[in-house]
Structure to design on (97 residues):
């Protein structure tokens, strides 16, 4: 898809393409907190089936939970303090006996 319009400097053309899967998931993440809704939004943006996108959304949610969070806390007149949180998921291994 492309759009063409005339300006005083000549014709301008903009090429528009659907977002790739990472861009669609990031946009859906900003709209909703629910992973199922994120999968539906990302699938609608890309024009793909929801089942194909759902796996990638769940993978992105799992990766996001393992990242570090950094926050800066400003106090009165002193230097700001930096707080670093690290949240990792517990991995449970099941052994068949």
């Amino acid at each position: 898809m492309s759009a063409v319009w005339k300006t005083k400097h000549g014709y301008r053309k903009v090429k528009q393409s659907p977002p790739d899967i990472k861009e669609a998931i990031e946009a859906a993440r900003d709209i909703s907190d629910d992973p199922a809704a994120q999968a539906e939004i990302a699938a609608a943006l890309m024009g793909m089936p929801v089942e194909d996108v759902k796996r990638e959304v769940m993978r992105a949610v799992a990766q996001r939970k393992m990242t570090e969070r950094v926050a800066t806390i400003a106090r009165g007149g002193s230097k700001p303090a930096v707080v670093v949180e690290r949240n990792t998921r517990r991995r449970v291994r099941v052994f068949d006996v």
Summary: The longest helix spans residues 50-65. Residues 17-84 form one domain. DSSP finds three helices and four strands in the chain. Helices lie at 21-31, 35-46, 50-65.
